[in-house]
Amino acid sequence: MSETRMLLCALLLVTLTCGGVAVPDDGPADRHRLMERKLVAAQKILTNLAREDYAAMQSAADDLQELARQQWTTDESPRYRAHLKDFWVTLDGVSEAAAEKNLDGATLAYVQMTISCVKCHKYLRQPAE
Ligand code: HEC
Q1: Model pTM?
Q2: Which residues are near ligand 1 (CB < 6 Å)?
Q3: Please, what CATH class does the domain formed by 28-125 belong to?
Q4: Domain spans of the chain?
Q5: How far apart are the CA of 22 and the centre of ligand 1, in A?
């Protein structure tokens, strides 16, 4: 098993086990669907890393970037904005590496993106200061 493949398997596990975020579900139903689409698009990147399908990888990253430009919360704190921008940058990283057919670069950017998902949710779960 190659290192990249092992990393992908580990990430898949993280993605599957960390799906639930304890954010109060008081938003409109379409926001919930938006979150589901976010998850599906992120998983599509992983699928296409495993397949080395760069076109599909880039299009999944671009779809996710489009979702990432939408408003998900009323939280407009500087910290939330910082997490959001970090997410955008990591998605650009996936898209650019896919365009260059750079598998290691895209894998690294995917890892950074995953960290950014987790960091933002972790921040959101903290009790308000
Ligand atoms: C900048 C912050 C931020 C980033 C980055 C982020 N999310 Fe979220 N996420 C949110 C917010 C805000 C909510 C709650 C939205 C709501 O009110 O329903 C949420 C909720 C979710 C939910 C619904 C959770 C539940 O309990 O129903 C999923 C699934 C999800 N995000 C997946 C992801 C994935 C996958 C990524 C990375 C590819 C990601 N998110 C990145 C802010 C973020």
Answers
A1: 0.81
A2: 19-21, 23, 25, 27, 31-32, 35, 38-39, 42, 72-73, 83-84, 87, 113, 116-117, 120-121, 124
A3: mainly alpha
A4: 28-125
A5: 10
